[in-house]
Amino acid sequence: MRKKSILLIVGLVAGLGISEVVISAFGLAPEITLISVGRFQLSPNPNIGYEPVPFFEYSGEDLKFYEFRGKSNSLGFRDREHRIEKPEGTYRILILGDSISMGLMVKDDEDIFPNVLERRLKTLQGNAEVLNFGVSGYNTRQEVATLIQKGLVYDPDLVVVQYCLNDRMEMNGGIIRELCALENSRAGIENSLLNPLLSRSALYRFLYFRVLHRTREQKLKQREETLALLKQDSVEESFQLLRATASEHDFDVLVAVFPVFAKVSDIRLAEHRRIAHLSSANGFFHLDLSKAFTECSQQSEESISLDPLHPSVSGHACAATAIADYISQHRLMK
């Protein structure tokens, strides 16, 4: 019986291998194509939509869709490589955010607030490690989905949500639009439309599209429907999902709200209060950076902002100091 089972398995593997070779040789399966715009590519996860390209390096002048100069890490983030296994005695912080965390318009990696935060915490309390998962244009849905898919394996002790007041909207500067336009102009099947583990198999593509009669147009329509989710306000449900995830994986959450560097409005003040209430309702720590930025602006001759949304080098230092002091004062580094 054992020999028959082994022969059956060997025969099955051999048959699959021969099928793969024959289908590839005769071009019977649709071709796949990898689509990217600048540092970004489409994601197979509908709650993420698009993601940064791993190990992408750029040294040009035009930063549109490139966001920063230099090389990203193996996950595509503006950060160094981090061991998956957390070093003993290390307090690990994972930053979720958008172009603020990615450091748009900030030249040097060491000047963006996640890196400044790590240095500040090491000065205050010892062995801290900060992982930067910020991606330009991400909203809260994308950030929490990224944490679940890519971040939990790093076993964070604290997740800092860098909250921007536009996080209720899809504000990615046209990244998704450009990626989808390029996808529509190609003849092949975009890799992210397929199972990421099987997409390079000609046999899988043959069965999926030729035998099951699925069409590229059906997949593109399905993608269009899922990407529409990113246009919806998902902050409340994303915070609830983050709360459940934090409880399951035993980490704290700090929501750090970055203000708009422009004239204060009643609408923005209401959003500050709304996010403070949401943080409290979900049991998150909460830090509104408005006061810190006001104090830093009064104490420094340098501007703390580069535009209404993005801090300057001084602004990043200001935010990092305020976040580090909050962590220290609330004894989060256990």
Give a nutshell description of this structure.
By secondary structure, this protein is of the alpha/beta class. It has helices at 2-25, 99-102, 113-125, 140-151, 175-185, 202-211, 216-227, 235-249, 266-281, 290-299, 313-329; strands at residues 32-33, 36-37, 40-42, 50-52, 57-58, 70-71, 91-96, 128-132, 158-164, 189-190, 252-258, 285-288. The strands form 4 sheets. The chain has a 5-stranded parallel β-sheet, with helices on both faces. Strands 2-3-4 form a 3-stranded antiparallel β-sheet, covered by helices on one side. Strands 1-10 form a two-stranded parallel ribbon.
The radius of gyration over CA amounts to: 23 Å
Given the structure, what is the number of helices? Answer: 11
| Terminus-to-terminus distance | 57 Å
CATH topology of the domain at 88-169 and 233-329: Rossmann fold
Overall shape: globular
The count of strands amounts to 12
Instruction: Please identify the oligomeric state.
Output: single chain
Can you summarize the main beta sheet? 5 strands, parallel
Strand residue percentage: 5-15%
What's the arrangement of strands in the largest beta sheet? 8-7-9-11-12
Task: Please estimate the helix content.
Answer: 40-55%
Mean pLDDT rating: 91
Low-pLDDT windows of residues: none
CATH secondary-structure class of the domain at 88-169 and 233-329: Alpha Beta
What's the SSE pattern? HEEEEEEEHHEHEHEHHHEHEHH
CATH level-two architecture of the domain at 88-169 and 233-329: 3-Layer(aba) Sandwich
Classified in CATH, the superfamily of the domain at 88-169 and 233-329 is SGNH hydrolase
Structural class, please? alpha/beta
